[in-house]
Amino acid sequence: MPRSDAKVFASISADGDPTAPSVILGRAVVLGGSVGGLLAARVLADYAERVVIIDRDELTAAGAARVGVPQGSQIHALLPAGRAQLERWFPGFSQQAVARGVYVASADVRRTYLDGRLKVRGSDVAVLSASRPFLESLIRGRTLELPNVEVVRGRVTGLDLSATAVTAVRYESMDGPGVEAADLVVDATGRSSRLGDWLARGGWERLPLTRMTININYATATFRRAESEPALGTVLAICSPGASGDIAGAMFTAIEGDRWMVMMGGYGDSQPGRTAEDLVRRLREDFPPEFRGVVESEMLGEVETYRQADSRRRDFHALERFPARLVSVGDAVSSFNPIYGQGMTSAALHASCLARYLSAEPDLSVAAREFFALQRVVVDAAWGISTSADLSRPSVSGPYPRGYRISSWVGNQIQEASVTDPTVARRFDAVTQMDRHPSYLATPGTVLRAIRANWRARRRAGHPHTP
C-alpha cells in the first residue's frame, strides 16, 4: 500500500544520522553553488568519488552578497526544519554559527502579531537568525572543506545528452569553453533555470511550468543594534487581507555584526520603502511599538528593494519521458513567495530526498522517478501553504485549486485561533515551519478546536455569532 504524503514527509524531514556512505558514482556535477546546490553537493560527497560545483560567481567562504542571488540582501528565515537538516549534514553547525556571530532567537525573545493582536506562544524551537550571505557562507565553508568537492567558476551553457541520459555539462569560463563529464547532474541554477530549454533543444519533453502571479514587493534595511542580547530579538507582524488589503506585514530580527535587519512587504501596487524616510515612517507608525525602537537606531547603508512577479514550480514527476542521471533541486524546482521563508528549508529537504534516493543504490540508467516522487511531497506541502495564503490577497487572481473556498475557510479559522489558543498555535507553527505536513492541521479535532477558540474569543469581545 502506498504511504501517505504525511508519512513520506515525516521520513524526509527526519534529522537522524545520514546513512553510511556508499560510493556509487564516479563524478557528480552540481549546477549552481547557492544553498540548494551546496546541500546537494554535501549529500553527493557521500556517494561520489568527485563532486564538481559549477557557478558563475566566485565561491569563497566570505559572507559577501553574490550577483547570482539577487534577493540575497533581503531578510531570510531558516525555519527549524531547515536548521535540523543543516545539523544533520554538518554536525555542530549551530554551535559553529553561534560562535561566528549568528543570533539565536529562542521562543522567549520572539513575538508574533496578527493584525496588531499579540499571538500566544507557539513553537518552543530556537531559531538561528542571520543575513542570507552570512548563513550561506557558513554552509559553503563546511561543504568546500570536504576533500572530494571542488568548484569550477563558469557559466553553464548546456548539457550533452545520449539517447537515454545526460553524459556531460558544457560551460564557459574565463579560460574558454569547458566540458565536465558526469555520472549524475544536479540542476540548482535557481528559478531562472534553463534546463527546460536544454532538454527541448535535445529533443526531450519540455518541462511543465506552473506560475502564479503574486507581484510581491520587499524593502529591507539594517540598523545598528546596541544590545548584544536584546529582550526581544525577533518580531513578526502579519497583516491579513481583511484588515490590510495588500500590505503583507513587517518583521525585524537581530543578525550578526550587532545589527537589526528590518523588512516590510506588500503586494501589487503596495510598494513599501521607496525611500528610507518612507520605510522608517511606516514601520514606526503602522506596526507594533517594538518596531519604533529598532528603526530609530542608526540605519546602516541603503534600503534594498526586491520584487518577485510570481511563484513557480516545475513538475518533473509529471513527465512521461526524462533523461537518466539528471535531477533538479531548490528554486529550480519550486520557487515560492519569499515572505513565508520556505526557500532554504525546502532546498534542505530536497537534499534529504536526494540522500534517500541514492542510499537505495538506484538504477542510474533510468530516470530518477523515485527521487521526483519524494520531492513532489515536499513541493506540494510548501506550494499549498504559500499559494493558499497568496490567493486571499485582493491583487492575486488565481488559479484557484479545487475546493479552495472550503480550504480557505478552514485555514482562516486555524490562523485566527492561533492568536488565542496555544495548542492550535503550536500546531500552526509546526506546519508553517515545515516540521509537519499540512495535513497535520486538517484533522477534524484541530479544526473543531479552532472553531471553538474563535467562538470564545468573539464572545469575550461581545460578538458571539459565528460568521
Supply Rg. Answer: 22 Å
Rounded to the nearest angstrom, the distance between the terminal CA atoms is: 41 Å
Mind telling me the CATH class of the largest domain? Answer: Alpha Beta
Question: Can you name the CATH architecture of the largest domain?
Answer: 3-Layer(bba) Sandwich
Report the CATH superfamily of the largest domain: FAD/NAD(P)-binding domain
Estimate the mean pLDDT confidence.
92
User: Which bin fits the share of residues in helices?
Assistant: 25-40%
Physical arrangement of strands within the biggest beta sheet: 5-4-13-14-15-12-16-18
Largest sheet features: 8 strands, mixed
- What structural category do the secondary elements indicate? alpha/beta
Shape assignment = globular
CATH-derived topology of the largest domain: FAD/NAD(P)-binding domain
Number of helices: 14
Proportion in β-strands: 25-35%
The total strand number stands at 18
- Number of spatially distinct domains: 3
Detail the poorly predicted runs: none
Pfam family, one: FAD_binding_3
GO molecular function: FAD binding
Domain FAD-binding: 29-360
Protein name: 2-polyprenyl-6-methoxyphenol hydroxylase-like FAD-dependent oxidoreductase
